[in-house]
Specification:
five-stranded antiparallel β-sheet; 6 helices; 5 strands; alpha+beta
Length: about 160
């Protein structure tokens, strides 16, 4: 599947999941946290990674969230366990084709997972501050995200 077709699938799934979408980035904001999903082209091959993450609304200077390097927390979809890990791995490596239907099902699951895991903002704040939480063991947490969790950065 080429990038244009993959972006079209993302756009359709994002809209039906209540997310805004611009190009390879989809996002949905809560009261304090914005959940995001972004395609990232591989530097080493023809595959595409699916990044997911969250950022405090207070850290977004424009109407469109920044790229993955600036997110408070992020991970890659192929690092998640079942049920669609194989689809995300194949999409990332581009060794075995992923059909639009497979990608659509995997993205629908990922949006639902994001909404479930990152919907409770007080729990996110707690997990950011707890160095032993699952959040720290599954990916990097930025210093600005920790400052938000301590209440040092607030949305205007």
């Amino acid at each position: 599947m080429d990038r244009k077709e993959a972006k079209a699938v993302l756009s359709v799934v994002a809209a039906s999941s209540g997310y805004s979408c611009k190009g390879a980035l989809a996002w949905n904001g809560g009261v304090e946290i914005v959940r995001m999903l972004q395609y990232q082209s591989s530097r080493w091959g023809s595959g595409t990674y699916v990044n997911f993450g969250i950022i405090p609304l207070a850290l977004i200077p424009r109407s469109v969230p920044p790229g993955v390097a600036h997110w408070g927390y992020h991970g890659r979809a192929e690092s998640l366990l079942e049920p669609f890990q194989d689809v995300f791995i194949r999409f990332a490596l581009n060794e075995v084709s992923v059909s639009p239907d497979e990608l659509e099902a995997a993205l629908r699951w990922l949006f639902t997972w994001l909404d479930g895991v990152f919907a409770n903002e007080p729990n996110i704040r707690r997990d950011v501050l707890d160095a032993n939480s699952w959040l720290h063991s599954s990916g990097p947490v930025t210093l600005t995200f920790k400052a938000w969790a301590r209440g040092e950065i607030v949305a205007r």
